[in-house]
Amino acid sequence: MTETSTAPRAAFTPLGGQVFRASQLTRGPWHPQQQHAGPPIALVSHALEAAAAAHGLSHQARLTANLLRPVPIGEMEVRVQEDYVGRNAGHFSAVALADGKELIRATALFQRAGEVDIPHGLPGHPLPLAPKTPADSPVQRFPFAHGEIGYPDLVETRMAEGTMFRGPSAVWFRLQHPLVLGEAPSPYQRVAVAADSGNGISAILDLSTHVFVNSDLTINLLRRPVGEWICLNARTHLSSHGGGLAESALYDEAGLIGRATQSLFVRKRE
What we know:
The chain has 270 residues and is mostly beta strands. It has a single domain (3-113, 134-268), classed as Acyl-CoA thioesterase, double hotdog domain (Porin). It is 12% helix and 40% strand. The protein contains four helices and 13 strands. Helix 1 runs antiparallel to helix 3. The termini are far apart. Residues 1-5 have low confidence and may be disordered.
């Protein structure tokens, strides 16, 4: 039975090497045949993490993904390059391709994990918690995907604060399907799937009248996330020159884990 005649079981199916086939679960808001950028960025992270792990570097401190072209729902290849590896940190880069065209270029910083005693009473510590826990946040489904299977079926979303797509808001995300078939997603992949939604959940323009698509995503993490849930506390800032910025504080159930930013291209639909 083909994937079009049955519900997909994962965002991506491995086809051998670093080639994967995207399922309908990756469908995004801008076009019915294009992916939401979160899943393919997470797939790039999947490959980068494997390269870093070979050097004992287990903490992804930063991931920057430049979105060069819309990502079609189809086959993708991910290629990774080791840029520099030192004693405590390593820099890696990756590219995602389809039909020979580059779709995503990414760079990542990985660090060697270690235990450090943090003195009590430091400013800003202990780190803040998300506005509400997942258990105290009502379920709210993403209102897009053109009436078809898509990203809203890949993730469960719960409102912690505000109203989705109506300004600053905080939303919990949890993967309802594996990122890669047969594999448990890593904490960093869970973050990447969610973090690209910051501009959507905090939108202050109407999706039917304006485009406010992000051209990149940068995630900075101060520690390894724990658990299945990731919260984005997001807000969008716009200029009158066609640009914008979405920024999201990132949390797991234990507290603040980092921050994500997206550069936005803003235009009125014709």
